[in-house]
C-alpha cells in the first residue's frame, strides 16, 4: 500500500499525518513570529564569553534588540489554544493552520489564503541563509508513481538534486573557532581539584557554552591536564546538578545518544525523552545521531527502537529514523499538498483543518502514538510556543520533573536566538518570566545551573 492509499484506517492516517503535518508549515509564514515581549527584556547581547550563532537569517527570525515578532499578533483560535495548552493553563495565542484545500472539496471547506500571507511565485520552501532552517518537510518515502505533471507545474527538472539541510551546530564535523578555552579549562580544574567541589565556579565555566565552545573547552582541559572533563564532572558532582552539567559537557550530539540509550534501556520507555530527541529533526541530524549511537554503544538505534516499541508507534519512529524527509532546499509542490490534503479529507470523513486534525489524533490514537503525533503537529504550528509548553509541563502540578526540565533547558540553550524566542513565547503564554518560574520550582546549585543556561547571571 502506498502512502496515499488511505481507507479510513488508523495506520494509513498515520502515514499521511507524518508526511503532511511537517510539510504544511512550509507553505505560509508561521504564526510563531507574533509574541510581543516587553521592550528591553529580550534580544540583548549575550553575556561576556557565552558566544552565539551569529545573526538570524533575514525575514525568518526577529532582529536583535527589538520586540519579538515582526507581524501582527496571531488570531486567537480556541482549538489551537487546546493544542498548545491541554492540560496546562489556558490562553489564546496560536492560530489555525491554513490549508490549501483542493477545488474538489465542498465549498464550505475552501479557505482562501489572506493577501498578507501570500508569497511571490517560486518562493515556496526557499531556505534561509546560514544554519537555521525553515519549518521541516515531510517524513516518509518519496512521491510514488508518475510525478512529471507535478514537476512541470513548478519547473523542476527530472532528477534534480537539492542540497541537504546542514546539520545543527555540534552535529557536523568539528570546527575551529576563534575562542581561547584555556582560562575556562583552568577554572574547571580549580573548581574540582582537591577536597570538595566549587559548584558555582564550575557552573559559571560550563553552563553558558555553545556547542563549538564546549568541544574546545574539553580539548583544552585534556591538553592541559591530561584529564577527561566529562569524567571529572561525573566524579565530582551528583544528583540533578550532575545530570545537567554532564548534558552540557557531552555536547548536543553525544548527549542525545546517551539520552536515547537511557530512554530505551531497561523496563519501559521514557517516551518524553524519545520524542524530544528524534521528532522534527533534519535528515543530517538523524544520520549523525544514528552513527554516533552505533559507535558509542556498539548497537543499532533502529534495533533498540524495534525491541522497545511496537505496532503503529514502532512504524512511526522507524519512518523518522529512515531520514528520508524532503530537504529544506527542495521546493514544496503545491499540487502534491492539495493531493495530500484531499487524502486526509477522505480519511477524516470530510472534516478538515488543524482543529479537526487535533480531534482526529485524539480520537483515533492513544498513548505514545497520540503524544508523538501531537508533538509534531504542535511543532509544525509554532515551535517556540511548543517548546514553552514543554518546559511548563515539567514544572506544572505537584512536584517538578527535574531531569526532564534539565534535559529540555540544555537542549534549548544551545541556540541562543531560539532560546530568546522561547522565553518570549513562555511569557506570552503563561504571563510570567521563565527565570522566575524556575526559581520558584528549583533551588541551590541546580537552580543556579538552569538559570545560567537560559542566560541569567548567578
TrEMBL record:
Residues 31-98, 110-144 are annotated as: Disordered. Residues 31-54, 62-72 have a biased composition (Low complexity). GO terms for cellular component: cytoplasm; nucleus; plasma membrane; vesicle membrane. Signal peptide: none annotated. It comes from the Eukaryota. Belongs to the annexin family. It comes from Parascedosporium putredinis. Keywords: Annexin, Calcium, Calcium/phospholipid-binding, Repeat. Coiled coil: none annotated. Residues 126-137 have a biased composition (Pro residues). A pair of annexin repeats may form one binding site for calcium and phospholipid. Residues 82-95 have a biased composition (Polar residues). SUPFAM superfamilies: Annexin (SSF47874). One of its GO terms (molecular function) is phosphatidylserine binding. SMART domains: ANX. This is Annexin.
Amino acid at each position: 500500500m502506498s502512502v496515499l492509499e488511505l481507507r479510513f484506517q488508523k495506520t494509513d492516517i498515520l502515514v499521511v499525518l507524518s508526511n503532511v503535518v511537517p510539510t504544511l508549515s512550509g507553505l505560509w509564514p508561521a504564526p510563531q513570529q507574533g509574541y510581543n515581549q516587553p521592550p528591553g527584556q529580550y534580544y540583548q547581547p549575550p553575556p561576556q564569553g557565552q558566544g552565539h550563532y551569529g545573526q538570524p537569517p533575514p525575514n525568518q527570525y526577529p532582529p536583535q534588540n527589538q520586540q519579538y515578532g515582526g507581524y501582527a499578533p496571531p488570531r486567537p483560535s480556541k482549538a489551537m489554544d487546546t493544542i498548545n495548552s491541554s492540560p496546562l493553563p489556558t490562553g489564546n495565542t496560536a492560530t489555525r493552520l491554513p490549508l490549501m484545500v483542493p477545488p474538489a472539496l465542498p465549498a464550505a471547506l475552501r479557505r482562501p489564503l489572506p493577501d498578507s500571507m501570500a508569497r511571490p511565485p517560486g518562493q515556496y520552501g526557499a531556505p534561509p541563509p546560514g544554519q537555521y532552517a525553515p519549518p521541516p518537510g515531510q517524513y516518509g518515502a518519496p512521491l510514488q508513481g508518475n510525478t512529471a505533471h507535478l514537476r512541470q507545474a513548478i519547473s523542476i527538472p527530472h532528477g534534480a538534486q537539492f542540497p541537504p539541510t546542514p546539520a545543527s551546530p555540534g552535529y557536523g564535523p568539528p570546527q575551529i573557532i576563534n575562542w581561547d578555552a584555556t582560562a575556562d579549562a583552568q577554572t574547571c580544574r580549580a573548581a574540582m581539584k582537591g577536597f570538595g567541589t566549587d559548584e558555582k565556579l564550575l557552573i559559571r565555566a560550563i553552563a553558558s557554552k555553545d556547542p563549538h565552545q564546549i568541544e574546545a573547552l574539553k580539548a583544552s582541559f585534556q591538553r592541559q591536564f591530561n584529564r577527561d572533563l566529562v569524567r571529572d564532572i561525573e566524579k565530582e558532582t551528583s544528583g540533578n546538578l550532575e545530570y545537567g552539567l554532564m548534558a552540557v559537557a557531552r555536547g548536543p550530539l553525544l548527549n542525545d545518544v546517551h539520552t536515547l540509550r537511557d530512554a530505551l534501556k531497561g523496563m519501559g520507555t521514557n517516551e518524553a525523552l524519545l520524542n524530544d530527541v528524534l521528532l522534527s529533526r533534519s535528515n543530517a541530524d538523524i544520520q549523525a545521531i544514528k552513527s554516533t549511537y552505533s559507535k558509542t554503544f556498539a548497537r543499532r538505534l533502529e534495533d533498540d527502537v524495534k525491541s522497545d516499541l511496537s505496532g503503529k508507534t514502532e512504524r512511526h519512529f522507524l519512518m523518522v529514523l529512515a531520514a528520508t524527509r524532503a530537504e529544506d532546499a527542495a521546493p514544496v509542490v503545491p499540487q502534491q499538498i492539495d493531493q495530500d490534503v484531499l487524502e486526509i479529507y477522505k480519511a477524516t470523513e470530510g472534516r478538515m483543518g488543524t482543529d479537526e486534525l487535533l480531534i482526529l489524533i485524539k480520537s483515533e490514537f492513544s498513548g505514545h502514538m497520540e503524544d508523538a503525533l501531537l508533538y509534531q503537529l504542535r511543532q509544525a504550528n509554532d515551535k517556540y510556543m511548543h517548546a514553552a509548553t514543554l518546559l511548563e509541563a515539567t514544572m506544572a502540578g505537584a512536584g517538578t520533573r527535574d531531569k526532564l526540565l534539565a534535559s529540555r533547558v540544555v537542549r534549548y540553550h544551545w541556540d541562543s536566538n531560539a532560546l530568546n524566542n522561547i522565553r518570549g513565547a513562555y511569557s506570552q503564554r503563561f504571563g510570567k518570566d521563565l527565570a522566575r518560574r524556575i526559581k520558584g520550582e528549583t533551588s541551590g546549585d541546580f537552580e543556579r545551573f538552569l538559570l545560567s543556561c537560559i542566560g541569567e547571571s548567578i
